[in-house]
Amino acid sequence: xxxxxxxDNHIDGKEALATHAESAVENAxxxxxxRLTRVEVHLSDENAGKSGTDDKRCMxxxxxxxxxxxxxxxxxxxxxxxxxxxxxxxxxxLETVLGRLDDQHRHAAVDLTGTE
Length: 116
What we know:
Elements: E1 2-7, H1 14-28, E2 36-45, E3 56-64, E4 70-76, H2 79-113
Parallel strand pairs: 1-2
Antiparallel strand pairs: 2-3, 3-4
Helix pairs in contact: 1-2
């Protein structure tokens, strides 16, 4: 699983944030690492340096093998909170999506063998 980090021009501390984002993604998606080709993380400050609540945004897109990409986003007061929130949401979404795929594959295998 490759992790790609992208930031807008208004995000400070890109190196530290990249490390935090990679760690958050790896920890949250550890269970799925063999089933994902890439996770893209997009970090932005939607108010471009002006003060505001929940103006930091993290969008994460995961690309499961043999499946369409899935994405989530999370707004928070700090970019670290936005990263952690998006990682948590992405984990939950992947559990749902990949769980459904696993169920479909199990049911297809049962149908092919004629057993239940």
